[in-house]
Amino acid sequence: MIRDLIKKEIEKAVNKIYPEQGRGIDIYADGKFGDYSSNIALAIGGNPRENAEKLKEKLSGSKLFSVSVAGLGFLNFTLSEEGMAEGLKNLNAKPKKYKEKVQVEFISANPTGELHIGHGRSAFYGNALANVLTAAGYKVEREYFINDSKESTQIKELGKTALGKGQTYLTDNLKSKISKLKDKIKKSKNEGKAGYLLAKEIQKDNQKFIEKGLRIKFDKWFSEEKELRAKKVFEKTLELLKKKKLAYEKEGALWLKTSQFGDDEDKVILRSDGSVSYFLSDIAYHADKFKRKYNKVIDIWGADHHGHVKRMMIAKEMLKLKGDLEILISQLVTLKKGEELQKLSKRKGNVILLKDLVDDLGLDAVRWFYLQKTLSTHMEFDLDLAKEQSAKNPVYYTQYACARMSSILKKSSVSSRQLSAKKSEIIKIKPVRNLVVKLIQFPEVIEDTAKDYQVHRLTTYAYELANEFSQFYRDVKVIGSENEKELVALVALTRNILAKTLKLLGISAPEKM
RNA sequence: GCCCUCGUAGCUCAAUGGACAGAGCAGUGCUCUUCUAAGGCAUUGAUGUAGGUUCGAUUCCUACCGAGGGCACCA
After folding, report:
1. Nucleic strand B contacts from chain A, 136-175, CB < 7 Å
2. Which of A48, A55, A227, A311 has the highest CB neighbour number within 10 Å of its CB?
3. pLDDT in tens, A200-245
4. DSSP reduced 3-state for A26
């Protein structure tokens, strides 16, 4: 990565001039003042401007860039042709491979109904994050947890509804499922069993929607009933906790001493009727996950579960589970009351289904709509607004650029070859240079995003790349140019990188629009 | 009451403690005999309030105000 190479050179210079200076080098791509900038001279202490001048002198021998000092003492780097050639070479290099196994668990919606707009966030984000981690070289597994234990309260509630003893979760859709399963439900002896039967059907539909409708593939669909309850993982986990003397009985229930580890109060793991609480189930689930030897487990939870994060971390500590656990909180999507929503609320109990949104706006637009925002943004969801925005969604601008590139590639009769910035005439053209600089940033974007999980950076990058291309498109005629061969190679490369970026987001890169 | 998020332009969102706070949409004014005008150019416009730390704060800390969420033997 060109950024790393510059960083190394800066480090060398700093170590020589300021050997006592131990801190890390800050460098960032910033098109405003140079291709890359660093504020290291400000961080060293003393006179920043003088520091910068000294560093500049040391760095000015580099083949990769030229340096200038600006403002308070910022170092600005402008890539040379050799520097750009180096950057382009990196684009074709095989990505690093890490041994680390990472699991991303997301959506995990209860099998009691269809996915709504809140689930969309976790769905698209989790999928894109898993894609980015894969691209960064990690071994990634995607998992979906199905809360289908016959013992769980909600499955029992669902069972009651199935048996005609309740109304919970009842929708038209559910009614027809119940009538289809009528005979089987009759035979089931209790609410848990009836609920489980029904949950299986609901889950089947949800899985189909996720795979076909949302185009998200999971490596494992983890059934709480089959993998935990039936295999007695709950009991085993309980034994372990008891052995560690972390559980005690009170008022007929079994409690976990979480307060000893910093929680506000202890929590129930076994209810007085002997059933397993959600907390114990989750502890058992995470014990199972870490037994599968992931170096890192990433959970994406809704904000309504955030209070549970601390407890989960405590439980992990108690069981001394090996590996990192990161729990990301996806802020809730709240509904804005509008005319459109009033209508929907009558029909569907104030819930907008993700399926309806995708049907209305199209998968690509919906994906972009969600992925543009950080996970921590409080989204206020207004269907009218979403509809209005989808028509003007920057995703179309980005895709349009793809279509234009395809069109050029189709029309040109020269065969493209690999692009090199060295010995190249076209790199002297400003819009070409700008485009190349943006292309070079691609691996950096992947690296940064794999590190901080800010997936929305990719939408920004895709848009910026499309924007650079649009300016190039306006100013540089490819077909018929004396440099057509090189320009075609540049367009092909740009298309490749833009399509890759979109693919990571789960968005299509159309040939024409 | 306690805890967690979040308050940025008219609207929806960006911004590793750094330079002049960026985009899109909306508004205003230009621009189509063009490799796709779903385009391009210009322009108006913002950090909730009050302090603190720092050479430098949208970012970190404190208080307040406002929005959402959580404080179960629900998940």
Report:
1. 147, 152-154
2. A55
3. 999 999 999 999 999 999 999 999 999 999 999 999 999 999 999 9
4. coil
Specify the nucleotide whose C1' lies closest to residue A470 (CA): B39
| Protein-to-nucleotide distance from the CA of A437 to the C1' of B53, whole angstroms | 38
Closest nucleotide to the alpha carbon of A393, via C1': B24
Nucleotides of B under 7 A from a protein CB: 2-6, 11-16, 18-19, 23-26, 34-41, 55-56, 67-75
Give Cα separations from A302 to A97, A161, A331, A475 (angstroms): 31, 26, 6, 47
Residues 206-245 of A with CB under 7 A from strand B: none
Instruction: State whether the beta carbon of A513 lies below 7 angstroms from any atom of strand B.
Output: yes
Is strand B less than 7 A from the beta carbon of A511?
yes
Q: Which of A214, A496, A494, A263 is nearest to A364 (CA)?
A: A214
Strands A74-79 and A101-105 come out as unpaired
Question: What residue is closest to B34 (Cα–C1')?
Answer: A474
Confidence of residue A92 (pLDDT cuts 50, 70, 90): confident
- Residue pair A118/A333 in contact (Cβ under 8 Å)? The answer is yes
The CA-atom distances, in angstroms, between A118 and each of A124, A276, A385 are 11, 27, 16
pLDDT digits 0-9 by tens, A247-267 = 999 999 999 999 999 898 999
pLDDT band (50, 70, 90) for residue A338: low
Q: Is the distance between the Cβ of A125 and the closest atom of strand B smaller than 7 Å? A: no
Please give the mean pLDDT across all residues of chain A.
Answer: 91
> Residue A418: which H helix or E strand, with range?
none
Residues of chain A (61-90) having a beta carbon less than 7 angstroms from strand B: 70-72, 74, 76
| Residue A341 confidence (pLDDT) | 47
DSSP A252-291: TEEEE-GGGGT-SS-EEEE-TTSPBPHHHHHHHHHHHHHH
Residue A347 is predicted with a pLDDT of 46
Output the CA angle A422-A427-A428, nearest 5 degrees.
Answer: 120
